[in-house]
Amino acid sequence: MRTKFAVRTLDITAGVSVVILNEEEATENDIFAGDRLIVDNGGKQAVVTVDVSKTIVKRGEIVLFADVAEKIGAKQGDMLTLAQTGHPASIEFIKKKMDGGILQENEIDTIISELMENKLTDMELASFITSLYIRGLNTEETVALTKAIVNSGQTLDLGVHPVVDKHCTGGVAGNRTTMLIVPIVAAAGLYIPKTSSRSITSASGTADTMEVLANVDLTLEEMKRIVLKTHGCIAWGGGMNLASADDRLIKIRHPMRLDPKGVMVASVLAKKKAVGAEFVAIDIPVGRGAKITSMDLANELAREFVVISAKLGMKSEIFITYGRDPVGCGIGPALECRDVLEALQGRGPADLVQKSCKLAGAILEMGGKAESGRGYAIALQLLQNGKAYEKMKEIIEMQGGNPNVKPDDLPIGQYREQFYAQEDGRIHLVDNRAVNRIARAAGAPKSKGSGMILYVESGDKVKKGQLLFEIVSESETKLSFASELAKDINPIELEAVILGKMGETGVFEWKPETAR
Amino acid sequence: MRTKFAVRTLDITAGVSVVILNEEEATENDIFAGDRLIVDNGGKQAVVTVDVSKTIVKRGEIVLFADVAEKIGAKQGDMLTLAQTGHPASIEFIKKKMDGGILQENEIDTIISELMENKLTDMELASFITSLYIRGLNTEETVALTKAIVNSGQTLDLGVHPVVDKHCTGGVAGNRTTMLIVPIVAAAGLYIPKTSSRSITSASGTADTMEVLANVDLTLEEMKRIVLKTHGCIAWGGGMNLASADDRLIKIRHPMRLDPKGVMVASVLAKKKAVGAEFVAIDIPVGRGAKITSMDLANELAREFVVISAKLGMKSEIFITYGRDPVGCGIGPALECRDVLEALQGRGPADLVQKSCKLAGAILEMGGKAESGRGYAIALQLLQNGKAYEKMKEIIEMQGGNPNVKPDDLPIGQYREQFYAQEDGRIHLVDNRAVNRIARAAGAPKSKGSGMILYVESGDKVKKGQLLFEIVSESETKLSFASELAKDINPIELEAVILGKMGETGVFEWKPETAR
User: Fold this and answer.
1) Pair B431, B318: CB distance under 8 Å
2) Which residues, including other chains, have CB under 8 Å from residue B425's CB and lie 6 or more apart?
């Protein structure tokens, strides 16, 4: 059997590790499409899945997709060695979990290591996640999984104390508390090396929003230098190789919408542990449109966060918050930044300010910068006396942005459409999911200046013809898409007086907005 | 957003349905690697997964892998429409099963339909199979799954009675009973439209072995014509689109080695129901190296086969057989054919003849061609009086082979190595898995004349220097690979007199062959 093949590269980022062999030659060697082999480029190895082709690959040649070529540093014309791969040890442990067994620490370590070495297929990982969802993880398993995820990537050791962090389980539009909490607690003298994510399905992630003001794509070394100098930063977590296994697990969990509780807890806490956090505040918004919709699940999650944090040597406080409505007025990167900058100057949306100061206050108390019960007041004071704003300017400058940017300087889309109340009433709901969809249709988060402005919130009394919200876009076409969508999936519901009616059908017809 | 794209085809059979878009253009349209979209070529649709590339795809272009292009009949330069796909309805039902629910018939139908329409990803299917493995299927679910699999493909209606069939769960090397049972029961006047599989991991499948004598790649129409004329055939099932969903489920189950009981039962019985079988004999070999290794599982499976068959209007009899040793002497397509032709002429390995006649006898009794308790004797008689051989010649001729082929005419590899007993003793085990691996290393099943010849079986007393087995290959290189492997994983174990010894380590050391 031939074991050396000449590399031809193909510029396709396939997401999966695929190589292509000549079909005839592969068959002769008992290799078939879907088989898993090891490619070795002078010691740099990857586990790959085989594709075959009759014509595009000649005998003696191997075609590599871009991601595989990069992983093993292979260039056009290199000679690669191809070898059979053994059965990954993880399969047995995944099967054990499937059968209801309890996984030992070394078994979980093996699964995460083999995941990182690309030895497991997406199908095997899907099977693992499904098994964890059905069978659950006990405390020891969750702790072991968290540690394994921490060990799968780089870690940050600032060498100073106390290091604090915060997290939000997500789903609430406009919820940019991080951009107030970081400067508040940093101004108080705590260290907060905050990493945030970019949006996947929402109008903007904290990293997308912060990017309007500064560079968020930092290396771990840059983050360390900035935090040691200014006590805080707001960086994009995806580029830093912290808790790397988590990024791969998310690729499986996300498309299947599968979030086993223990995996969610391990995923969050591993990211905190990896940056050396000692005190952590976790925000769990609960309500329709938020990621967590049931109070029972929020309670269970909260308990797990507390217990597992303690086992990892961190102290966490968990806050279940009202997640049914968006926070702030602007939705979309630049519009959210405008709210944040206003708030840092003592103005800004009341809900955003209050929620951020509550969470920041809890962190100040845990970190020893406020007596019990005084955290909120101190946080609010740091916001009102301009110290948080000064701190934010330092952070923006250290991250390569313009510290003197004013809210009105931020480029906001020029194409706009306003929506008005059709009748008198009280606002029943501002729907997070609808708001996110409309803002995305308008171009957010890629188009920084696009999104929505909300002029009302739940409970407000409105008159017919009163302005409810405005869609903002940098593209005329996208504005018209978003406006059509807003007419279709009305994001703001008035409280219904008549809840339903029964006509000649004899069936009670609910008004669509209440039946949704 | 652009919705029309010009096709460029790429000759790669990716196994998964992937298209490649220009990265920049995709990003502008909020499409990312891994997203699922529908491509439409004038009404012919497929659900595809998106890849992106910076350079090989121009804006306005879409690159299709060979399998996708074929599926929707797209050619270079065609204009395709790209559309968002909704969330497949199956996801909710897969989640229901995950959560421990019982699936209704229409829910199972939806999953199998969406599977056939390529609307489900491999990850979603892996999650489904994992859920079925953990949660199990009740009788109604298994019946519904079987029916859905039958309906996913073509079916055979011979219009004659009685139609019979047989199945073996597999794993036993050389177990070519089908090639004796089919001519025996056909000679007795029953109709047996037998479809068999090719080998995946064993030395040979029945279809691989029959292919030495005749063409096995028949259409459903050809099979119908042959069976109506001769009462029997031995065809490859993979080319006929019978119970098609099963082939796709196997693609998921096989690499994960996941065989939920209900799915295994549905898979087997759907193939029988699809050819219109009324009476079915099922052989479950149990033992080390066989597919089913535990008697408990064999018992459970047997019960399910009986119950589910009845619900589908078939009568099944289940035989748990000794599966620890290979059957017959030859291992590999041509060598197994030699055993079969010898047996049809009243000679041949005793174990092969006996097992085949026991199973054929049961079918004769179910099908009304033998009184209760007389089936075995009649089957043996049909073999000994040459009627089964005459029938086999008819079948071979109808399937385009040479009916007059003699055992010695079959081309057997010229490269051979013999292996001898190292000491006196009694044969303890002939290891199915080792035998399969060695025969495959020698070239089977692709190389028809390669494999092994076994000269002893379990229980035989042997003298030092006595011939145990011989490796046969059509390639000198492969012979040497196979010989090395045979020395490494000795396929024939002598009964150990000393089971283990304790030395100065104070630990009892088991002899490797007994500890295996």
Assistant:
1) no
2) B461, B462, B494, B495, B497
Question: Chain B within 8 Å of A13 (Cβ-Cβ)?
Answer: yes
In the three-class reduction of DSSP (H, G, I as helix; E, B as strand; rest coil), residue B404 is classed as coil
**pLDDT tens-digit profile of A67-97?**
788 888 898 889 988 887 767 889 999 999 9
DSSP-derived pairing of the beta strands A61-65 and A4-10: parallel
CA quadruple A14, A20, A23, A28: dihedral sign: negative
Q: How far is CA A114 from the centre of its chain?
A: 24
Q: How far apart are CA B234 and CA B226, in angstroms?
A: 10
Strand partners, A415: A473
- End-to-end CA, chain B: 62
Give the pLDDT band (50/70/90) at residue A395: very high
Contact A359/A283 with Cβ under 8 angstroms? yes
Q: In Å, what is the CA distance from B464 to each residue of A339, B346, B423, B426, B490? A: 90, 32, 4, 11, 16
pLDDT for residue A505 is more than 80: no
Residue B133 and residue B253 in contact, taking contact as beta carbons nearer than 8 Å: no
Residue B512: pLDDT over 50: no
Question: Catalytic: which of B109, B246, B259, B325?
Answer: B259
B36-41/B44-53 β-pairing: antiparallel
Q: What kind and span of H or E run contains A81?
A: strand A79-84
What is the β-pairing status of strands B4-10 and B61-65?
A: parallel
Token code pair at residue B8: 């460029």
The CA angle B100-B104-B110, to the nearest 5 degrees, is 105
What type of residue is B144? Answer: A
pLDDT tens readout for residues B78-103: 999 888 776 788 999 999 999 999 99
Note if B259 is an active site residue: yes
CA A346/CA A24 separation, integer angstroms: 72
| Contact indicator for B50, A96 with CB cutoff of 8 Å | no
Looking at beta carbons, which residues of chain B come within 8 Å of A135?
Answer: 134
Tokens of A167: 């997290």
Tally A–B CB contacts below 8 A. Answer: 109
pLDDT score, position A513: 41
Of A18, A51, A98, the CB nearest to B130: A98
The CA distance from A210 to A396, in Å, is 9
Residue B502's pLDDT band (boundaries 50, 70, 90)? low
CA A416 to mean position of chain CA atoms? 29
Closest C-alpha to A480, from A411, A416, A414, A412: A416
**ipTM of the complex, rounded to two decimals:** 0.81
CA distance to A207, A331, A332, B165, per residue, from A448 (Å):
12, 10, 7, 66
Q: Report pLDDT digits (tens) over B194-203.
A: 999 988 778 9
The verdict on whether omega for the bond into residue B445 sits within 30 degrees of 0, i.e. cis, is: yes
Q: Determine whether B319 is exposed, middle or buried from the number of CB atoms within 10 Å of its CB (0-12, 13-18, 19+).
A: middle
Residue of A nearest to B12 (CA): A53
B515 confidence band (pLDDT: 50, 70, 90): very low
Given a cut of 90, is residue A468 above it in pLDDT?
yes
